[in-house]
């Protein structure tokens, strides 16, 4: 947090840990809430948005913050667990101020906001005192196009004006290290306008990963605001089962149009998944399990398992089949689990290790039977095989959980899940006069 002891650049707060007086971590900072004021008066910092266990976002007033040093926030007192709801007079710094184009009053030039700094006044209050800017606009790839400088808040204007094409490079840089699920949480809490701008700034692979973690309504909203060609690219980058789930939420004509724009070899497994009933093995499965021929060695199998793109549940075993190796494969022979691979010499052929004691699942197996199958045999993934003994996919435990939970579980998780506070619980901003 470079600068004087009483100056903190907001981007440096993103994601840092928040501790209670006993030294126990209670959450992480996700944004800073400020109140813009009339004229050139610096905005007053009301508090921090903290993400606690269960992804619930709560409000922490600045008067309860005792320290902002050494890359951590120390708070005092009991946290109010009321879910944070942004009010009309409030502005979120990271979500709404970064990447804005404002005017440097001295020269009349357009400048892009890279960061803002809050400073502590003599009355121990915090306000936004400095703005770190770059002269000119910043493109999607955040290339430098001019000098950078730090200006006083009073030296810029335009923060209260609506902006149609606000970038997102600096917002994304602030959350660059977040997991896809955590970035999905950030995007879910943005306005629809900022959500679309962030989606436009993300590369295809990253946006695909994030979409898979968002509620269906957000997925449909975001994909609907992309140009058809890019939407098709995003669907290609998604796991086929997730792409099929998203397309099933779109009107039939729109879904078909996007499928037509996808590469045929990428669209084919998605089309196949769309033919199965939703809560069956065929509807839940992924079409991209790890498949090896029987003459592959243990060393080759372990090399495939180590590929970082594979989800843990899929990397827990390999499926041994006759060629072709892409689903639908040749004749399914059996499964070799990761632990067995670790116990065998590297030169051993996987065909000699297959576990063929368990019958694979037919594509029309209902969800209840899939659940009991995985639980009975302590498995994290199960093969799905058609009538001709071709492996067509694998159902993983995360796919099953996704469908066992209530339909709105992602939305509930992003809002902190069950256990909402009592409606008559006093709001921290009202009690402390933070409004």
| Topology, number of strands | 18
Q: Report the average pLDDT across residues.
A: 87
CATH H-level homologous superfamily name of the largest domain: CBS-domain
Number of helices: 17
How large a portion of the residues is in β-strands, by DSSP E? 15-25%
For the sheet with most strands, the description reads: 7 strands, mixed
Keywords: CBS domain
Domain CBS: 354-411
Pfam family, one: MgtE_N
Organism: Kitasatospora misakiensis
Description:
The structure is a single chain. The protein is α+β, with helices and mostly antiparallel strands and about 425 residues long. It folds into four domains: about 5-95, SH3 type barrels (Roll), CATH 2.30.30; about 95-170, no CATH class; about 205-275, MgtE N-terminal fold (Alpha Horseshoe); about 290-405, CBS-domain (Roll), CATH 3.10.580.10. The protein is about 30% helix and about 20% strand. It contains 17 helices and 18 strands. The protein has helices at about 95, 170-175, 180-190, 190-200, 205-210, 215-225, 230-235, 240-250, 250-260, 265-275, 280-285, 300-305, 340-345, 365-375, 395-405, 410-415, 430; strands at about 5-10, 15-20, 25-35, 45-50, 55-60, 65, 70-75, 90, 100-105, 110-120, 125-135, 150, 155, 290, 315-320, 330-335, 380-385, 390-395. The strands form four sheets. Strands 2, 3, 4, 5, 6, 7 and 8 form a seven-stranded mixed sheet that branches. Strands 1, 9, 10, 11, 12 and 13 form a six-stranded antiparallel sheet that branches. The longest helix has 11 residues, at about 265-275. The protein is elongated and about 75 Å long. The protein starts with 6 loop residues before the first strand and ends with a helix. Mean pLDDT is about 85; it is low at about 140-145, about 420-425 and about 430-435.
